[in-house]
Fold each of these.
Amino acid sequence: MQKPGKATDAVLTPAEVCELYPIFRNPQALADLRYRGDGPDYIKTAGRAGRVYYRQSAVERYLDDRTVKAGGQRAA
């Protein structure tokens, strides 16, 4: 069920993120980013051994924040 006023946002597994965004080489590369405290925001299910998921909007936001315009300026 969709919350009122909130747009639909796909929830992706690490493998799906890597398939859609080849800049993330593989799920282990995403895990390394998480370990270092970098990378897109993610969802972690309960417990230490819980599964990790990413909202597509969080991945897009992460990439947008790192997009550099020609001439070395960050994109607006």
Amino acid sequence: MTPQEIAEKSADAMWADDPASQELGMRIDAIAPGRAVMSMEIRKDMVNGHGICHGGFSFTLADSAFAFACNSYNNRVVGQHCQVTYLSPGKLGERLTATATEVSRAGRSGIYDVTVTGEDGRNVVIFRGHSRQVSGTHFDEQDG
């Protein structure tokens, strides 16, 4: 299998077991080794008392993109810790896009940067996640 095929099959396996991302209306727009692009439309039930996207939902979008990027090598990987900075509010009805990119991957540890942008291209959230590989894989590569 090519690295791209492994990334795609890993994403398919994770997506099948990820009701949280599915129920929030997220979609995987692109996947590659060490990279994921996901998006989500801000619904009425995601808006806070200020009439803007609740930070927890924009964080969750960033966290999901992080998860798909760091799991793209067919190793089970979890988040170890992260830092998030909110720069601009998401708006009701707007589709936010999270782009996760690998910064470093060595041994069992990785660092990934995620930028969440609004439809107009503005930065909404900057997220840096540190990952840790745990035991197991998403699928048996011998089966293709």
Amino acid sequence: MILGDPEIRLRDLAENCRLTERAAQAIVTDLETAGYLTRVRHGRRNHYEVTPGTLFRHPAEGHHEIADLLQLLVDLDQPTPRPTADDHRKHSDGSAHPEPRTPPPGPPDLPSRQRRDRP
């Protein structure tokens, strides 16, 4: 959330994450102390920034930057534009036809089980 809105208030951060303000403050302070975040005061608000180049602590992931993971999470939070009724595929004759609908993938057709009676 901080990467998506660097000037987010801790109150809003806590509410959106379903945490108490005290818990959110402790997490942000821990991240700042560990060097993952920096905080700069802008008037009455704080401006947070993810420190570029910080790596995961575990050796298995130690070659990956934290910012890359956070950017993926921010991108997932962005809504994907949905096609509207006006979005049509044009045929070669210039007429518009709606996009064909494809059924969602489902389980493969399985043969039905046959009941076996035991002797």
